[in-house]
């Protein structure tokens, strides 16, 4: 414990984006994450259920607010601008529930929580995580910018690099992690009661190289594990700084698994005549033509093309139920090599509650294991392969607490209680 | 257009200078990148709108038709109060365009360092249509048209000042006229050639760097000239800067596509060379830095009229008739008024692309409201007709004789230039009419008549007479300083038509 911290117990929250409970346990067991291993022997860890859909910004919004998407209003990385087929990218400004840092009684350092751009003014220091297009707007107070610029801080790796070269991508991941460590050490010296730090490189690494984790012969297997060794080293460093009574919570926001097939859901709808498109796929949703009953936004969010809601809306109030039933049937019957692709089709009021439900997708699909659902408007076939190896999973995020008991079958919304306690 | 839509209705934020590119998001990999990757599957470009903050980050595909910041006007959808900066505001075209745009709701700023006034003075000449000092012109604009122009006197090559001004104004479109536009001036001697190329080439190169750093989304309308292409004796069509997709090079029994490559340039003075050099500099800047530009291969402009410049004598734009800065039709009308035979160089069978002042203003407006896409370097041939110099002389003479009771004759002079005097010419000019809805409104007869109307006023006739010694060409491409000898003098209608006909390909 450094000198400038008072005697009140502090709380530290460490997030590791996209890490399934089995992976962290496995690496701890193999002795590759020794600090985590010893934490596990002191506290309690359990699998945690992510929000639906299991997208990072939906999850982190639930984690920091303790609310379900029907209340916080974030349903995915994308949304459509009212009255148009133009996609926007909802960020913190679209968040309709209060994150824990709005309680001004305590002082905070919040470093790299995804989906929280632009940085809010809080009692303490805030550096937003991915997606943060401009560093200048990702920090508060303003004086923080100078500090970060001096250490050449990076919010995230440049994902373009991963598409060019795995090697360059890995180099960048390690470099970004190093910068993150520098930043955390710098801000640790501030006055705070709650310190939250999220590692996001883990998720990127798994998306591109989850096969390297599974396959020990893979040329990048060692580098993959080394990344987690680095994360473990930093965790150890943090633990060393903690006092006896200080609390530590550790978690991921969703799990990860190997992709078997990518599934173009809009192609499914088009084949069934439910979606009609023009000949300009590059226009994405603007390529939707008259007569469309429904379309899908990433990953598996189905929206009825309602009359008063969209420029070429078709579905009237009285037709909604019939069309929903039809679409549910289509997806429930979707198979790949004799295997069911969609595990469950949820109607919005079955999974969401709250003021924002009206804006929620009409149906949300959750896939069977290995199927990566896509709402892309550029597709050729229903099933396809691409560069990505890992995809998010719903049921196997992890939650760890050193000091407190965990709830039975925890969900991402439950984390807030551990932070507030 | 066939479906009754305005021609730029379906343009999107992708074309809009109010969009601020913020890189792309890669959803599958939960990644982000600062780079602009326009066509990536599963990667989505993110922009913010400078004008509509409430939209947050979004993909650049709201159409002009949908966006409340774009309003219908005569020449397409126009960005409300669009900010246009005109480099070379005091010039023949710059001044005319400034008034024209400001009168149509654009917010106009501009610079000039009066290079043109100085060069004309160096020749010992003056503009035959009198123009007052800039301050007085600005005052007249305010008083007569209720227009405020944000003008700063500055040299384009003063990069520090220019950068500050651009930073302050944040123009959404930049029209770059600020070059020394005279072929003969560039052929006087080494000093003049160097000055033209320094001023033009380095000015443009510096501007491109400033745009990269300060206003990368702003569209650049750069003025080139049809003279960049030359006049190939094979009659090969002069495409719009780049070869069309189906153009093929055949050699030695093999074939290659030329689609998208730059067409050959064959400039015919050191001035034209400066324009060609600009072309490459602009092309490269678009490639390296995602700047966007229309390189406008403009035909020879003629005329004196727009409603704005005609609104008050103090609002007039300049009109030169000296051998350096007078362009062909403008010179002919002046010569006709003054009573000297119209000066044709050599055979007079040269064919040139031309366009009336007002039509040129309309073209510029249409291009300003339809900016290219990021990284797009596009070339348009801005001409409304192809004319043989000899025929132009006939037209001017006819109008002068029939409507103004003059007795105009024509003279052929020894050609001071090195150029083909007889050649075929086919010009492709499809983009303005096809993609930008341009349809010429001013016939040559009509504009020539307006010119006579103005130039036959007593005070202007006096001005023409005062400097009549500047009319005959003395600047030869060979370097000699010697007046051209007269080959022949004839009356209009005496000569038989013959030789090549120009062909303008608009559809
Ligand atoms: N007029 C034509 O027939 C014609 C035809 C084809 C292309 N163009 C091109 O169009 C443009 C405008 O032509 P114009 O006829 O209006 O010529 P112009 O000389 O009347 O206008 C150019 C203006 O730019 C200014 N200028 C030049 N260098 C400058 C510098 N370094 N800093 C600041 N101001 C500077 C001049 O003082 C002048 O006022 C030129 O680039 C010309 O080459 C003209
Ligand atoms: Zn992810």
Task: Assess the beta-strand content of chain B as a share of residues.
Answer: 15-25%
- The number of helices of chain A is 13
Q: In total, how many domains does the architecture of chain A comprise?
A: 2
CA gyration radius of chain B, whole angstroms? 23 Å
Shape of chain B: globular
Describe this structure in words.
The complex is a heterodimer of chains A (421) and B (507). Chain A starts with 10 loop residues before the first strand and ends with a helix. In chain A, the strands form 6 sheets. Chain A has an 8-stranded mixed β-sheet. In chain A, strands 12-13-17-16 form a 4-stranded antiparallel β-sheet. Chain A has a 3-stranded mixed β-sheet with strand order 18-11-19. In chain A, β14 and β15 form a beta hairpin. The model of chain A has no long low-confidence stretch (mean pLDDT 94). By secondary structure, chain A is α/β, with parallel strands linked by helices. Chain A folds into 2 domains: 278 residues, 3-Layer(aba) Sandwich (Alkaline Phosphatase, subunit A), CATH 3.40.720.10; 127 residues, Gyrase A, domain 2. Chain A is globular, with a radius of gyration of 22 Å. Chain A is built from 13 helices and 21 strands. Chain B has 507 residues and is of the alpha/beta class. Helices cover 31% and strands 21% of the residues of chain B. Chain B is built from 13 helices and 23 strands. In chain B, strands 9-8-7-10-11-14-18 form a 7-stranded parallel β-sheet, sandwiched between helices. A 3-stranded antiparallel β-sheet of chain B has the order 2-1-3, with no helix packed on it. The relative contact order of chain B is 0.13. At the A-B interface, β4, α6 and α8 of A face β1, β2, β3 and β4 of B. β4 of chain A pairs antiparallel with β4 of chain B, so a sheet runs across the interface. The site of nicotinamide-adenine-dinucleotide has 28 residues of chain B, from α1, β8, α2, α6 and β11.
């Amino acid at each position: 414990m450094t000198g400038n911290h008072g005697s009140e117990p502090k709380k530290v929250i460490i997030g590791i984006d996209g890490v399934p409970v089995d992976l962290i346990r496995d690496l701890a067991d193999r002795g590759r994450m020794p600090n985590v291993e010893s934490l596990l022997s002191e506290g309690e860890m359990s699998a945690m259920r992510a929000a639906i859909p299991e997208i990072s910004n939906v999850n982190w919004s639930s984690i920091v607010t303790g609310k379900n998407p029907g209340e916080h209003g974030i349903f995915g990385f994308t949304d459509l601008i009212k009255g148009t087929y133009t996609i926007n990218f909802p960020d913190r400004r679209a968040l309709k529930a209060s994150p824990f840092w709005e309680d001004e009684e305590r002082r905070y350092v919040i470093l790299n929580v995804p989906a929280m751009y632009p940085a809010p003014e809080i009692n303490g220091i805030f550096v937003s995580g991915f997606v943060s297009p401009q560093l200048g707007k990702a920090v508060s107070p303003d004086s923080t910018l100078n500090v970060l610029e001096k250490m050449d801080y990076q919010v995230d790796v440049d994902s373009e690099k991963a598409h060019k070269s795995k090697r360059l991508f890995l180099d960048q991941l390690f470099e970004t992690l190093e910068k993150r460590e520098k930043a955390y050490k710098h801000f640790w010296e501030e006055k705070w009661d709650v310190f939250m730090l999220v590692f996001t490189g883990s998720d990127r690494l798994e998306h591109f190289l989850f096969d390297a984790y599974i396959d020990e012969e893979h040329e990048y297997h060692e580098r993959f594990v080394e990344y987690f060794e680095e994360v473990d080293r930093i965790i150890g460093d943090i633990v060393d700084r903690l006092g006896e009574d200080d609390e530590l919570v550790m978690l991921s926001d969703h799990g990860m698994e190997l992709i078997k097939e990518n599934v173009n859901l809009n192609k499914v709808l088009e084949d069934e005549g439910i979606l009609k498109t023009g000949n300009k796929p590059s226009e994405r949703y603007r390529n939707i033509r008259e007569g469309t009953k429904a379309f899908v936004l990433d990953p598996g969010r189905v929206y009825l093309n309602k009359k008063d809601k969209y420029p070429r809306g078709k579905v009237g109030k009285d037709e909604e139920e019939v069309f929903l039933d039809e679409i549910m049937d289509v997806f429930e019957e979707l198979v790949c090599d004799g295997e069911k692709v969609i595990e469950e089709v949820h109607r919005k009021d079955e999974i969401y509650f709250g003021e924002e439900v009206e804006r929620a997708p009409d149906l949300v699909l959750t896939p069977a294991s290995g199927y990566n659902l896509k709402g892309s408007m550029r597709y050729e076939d229903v099933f396809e392969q691409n560069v990505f190896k890992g995809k998010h999973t719903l049921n196997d995020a992890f939650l760890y607490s050193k000091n407190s008991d965990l709830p039975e079958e925890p969900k991402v919304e439950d984390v807030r209680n551990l932070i507030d306690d | 257009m066939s479906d009754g839509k305005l021609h730029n209705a379906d343009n999107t934020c992708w074309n809009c200078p109010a969009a601020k590119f913020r890189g792309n998001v890669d959803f599958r990999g939960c990644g982000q990148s600062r780079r602009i990757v326009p066509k990536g599957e599963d990667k989505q470009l993110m922009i913010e709108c400078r004008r509509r903050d409430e939209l947050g980050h979004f993909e650049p595909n709201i159409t002009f038709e949908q966006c409340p910041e774009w309003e219908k006007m005569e020449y397409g959808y126009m960005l409300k109060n669009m900010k246009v900066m005109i480099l070379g505001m005091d010039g023949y075209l710059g001044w005319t365009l400034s008034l024209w745009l400001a009168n149509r709701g654009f917010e106009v700023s501009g610079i000039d360092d009066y290079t043109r006034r100085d060069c004309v003075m160096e020749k010992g000449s003056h503009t035959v249509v009198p123009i007052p000092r800039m301050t007085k012109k600005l005052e007249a604009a305010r008083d007569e048209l209720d227009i405020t122009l944000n003008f700063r006197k500055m040299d384009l090559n003063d990069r520090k000042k220019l950068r500050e001004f651009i930073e302050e104004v944040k123009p959404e479109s930049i029209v770059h006229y600020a070059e020394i536009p005279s072929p003969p001036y560039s052929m006087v001697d080494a000093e003049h050639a160097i000055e033209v190329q320094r001023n033009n080439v380095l000015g443009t190169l510096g501007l491109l760097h400033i745009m990269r750093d300060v206003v990368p989304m702003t569209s650049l309308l750069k003025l080139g000239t049809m003279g960049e292409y030359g006049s190939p004796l094979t009659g090969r069509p002069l495409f719009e800067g780049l070869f069309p997709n189906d153009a093929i090079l055949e050699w030695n029994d093999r074939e290659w596509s030329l689609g998208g490559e730059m067409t050959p340039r064959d400039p015919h003075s050191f001035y034209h060379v400066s324009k060609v050099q600009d072309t490459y500099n602009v092309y490269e800047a678009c490639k390296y830095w995602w700047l966007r530009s229309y390189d406008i291969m403009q035909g020879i402009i003629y005329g004196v009229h727009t409603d704005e410049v005609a609104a008050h004598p103090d609002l007039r734009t300049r009109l030169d008739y000296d051998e350096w800065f007078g362009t062909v039709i403008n010179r002919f009308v002046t010569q006709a008024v003054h009573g000297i035979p119209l000066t044709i160089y050599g055979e007079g069978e040269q064919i040139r692309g031309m366009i009336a002042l007002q039509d040129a203003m309309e073209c510029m407006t249409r291009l300003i409201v339809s900016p290219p896409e990021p990284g797009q370097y596009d070339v348009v041939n801005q001409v409304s007709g192809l004319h043989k110099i000899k025929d132009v002389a006939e037209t001017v003479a006819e109008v002068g004789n029939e409507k103004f009771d003059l007795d105009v004759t024509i003279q052929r002079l020894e050609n001071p230039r090195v150029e083909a005097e007889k050649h075929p010419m086919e010009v492709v000019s499809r983009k303005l009419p096809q993609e930008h809805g341009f349809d010429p409104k001013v016939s040559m007869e009509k504009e020539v008549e307006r010119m006579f109307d103005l130039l036959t006023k007593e005070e202007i006739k006096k001005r023409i007479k005062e400097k009549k010694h500047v009319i005959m060409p003395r600047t030869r491409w060979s370097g000699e300083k010697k007046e051209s000898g007269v080959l022949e003098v004839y009356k209009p209608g005496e000569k038989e038509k013959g030789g090549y006909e120009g062909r303008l390909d608009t559809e």
